[in-house]
Request: fold
Amino acid sequence: MEKLRINGKKKLSGQVSVQGSKNSTLPIVAGAILCEGKIILHNCPDLTDVTAAVNILESLGCKIRREKDTLIIDSTNITTSEISEKLMHEMRSSIVFLGALLARTGKANLSAPGGCEIGLRPIDLHLKALRELGVEIKEESGRLCCQVKDKIKGKEIALAFPSVGATENVMLAATLAQGRTTLINAAREPEIRNLADFLNSCGAKIYFAGESTIVIDGVRRLHDSEFRVISDRIVAATYMASAAVTGGEMDIINFPVSDIAPVLPFFYSSGCKITADENNLHIKAPKRLRSPGTVRTMPFPGFPTDFQAPAMAMAAVSDGTVIFIETIFESRYKHVSQLKRMGANISVEGSVAVVQGVARLSAANVYAEDLRGGIALVLAALAADGTSDVFNLKHIDRGYENIEENLSLLGADIKREV
Ligand code: UD1
Reply:
């Protein structure tokens, strides 16, 4: 079984450039089908999830070429509105194709995403909002058969929770709708703004994305565009954590630093020194991290749930107690049992994890059970005494491009072995 073999306790230093954002690339790739023409997308990371999205586009009739980190997508001919169950299951966020297909073809036939490693992935908010826009949805043995009655009609819609995926689906569906859609309690994550910027670059009229109320004035069609996807804020924060857990010092470059504002207090309170300009950041970690207190995951601009596991790897070796309260997903502590194998002192009760930092972690064989939990194990192994093996790399490969090359260049002793 493939594994990352990590000999820990090497201080990381140097410079790393941040890859494109997976969570921006996926909805933007889906959004490319709204445009009856050619889309050139730069800064698309080469990850299994992005390949899965590309496979879906191809199955719909698009022609796609990758040149390094650029995807060239021709969606002139969409030949079907159906996505096979196999393709839907290859990528958890494939539900974002629902809004895109409805906008382009007025129909969609695809399977519901079901559960995943971090808990159930209900889509009730997506379906309720799309129904309000005039979509008829039948759920038949795990398949969603959707049809626009006449035309998608703009409306005022309020989400009960600012779901990222539901916000993206509404934006995609409403872009080619008749009239104005006002989405209240929309998600405010930077990826939402990036999707709106992309669609607007194709001629859409989306206003105030990134705020709680988004206004979308439907347009008849979208045109060709060339666009650069933003860099990945969670990956940037993960490299910061790799400096933090090894007492290192690092330049993390080419990403919008304002996107990581919600995690900066955590690093400052841990004793890290940070200087930054708009797109680059320098971090210097203390010899021993301090406890930053309590971490409560929240929708943006709160502390991101996607950084909860990497932050826990930091907490595991910090001096003091850190309390985590996970409010977004119900099963997001799967990394805890693995961190404990390395000597971490963590107890979990429901959505609360109490981490009592230890002076040293020790090497162990550990198993990634989800993407961010997996990278937390890599971070813990970088901090631990001795040689650890991290297994189940398929999870980590969904979100981190060239992880072992990048960490090696920063001075880690890490190898991928079969
Ligand atoms: C996206 C991100 C994911 C991140 C999450 C929260 C992508 C590809 N994935 O996931 O990395 O962790 O945002 O920042 O961008 N919910 C419902 N009903 C719904 C929709 C969501 O109950 O119809 C619940 C979910 O179960 C979850 C919470 O709302 O508990 C947040 O989900 P959501 O914001 O939709 O996350 P995703 O878009 O799936």
Notes: The chain has two domains: 3-16+289-417, 22-228.
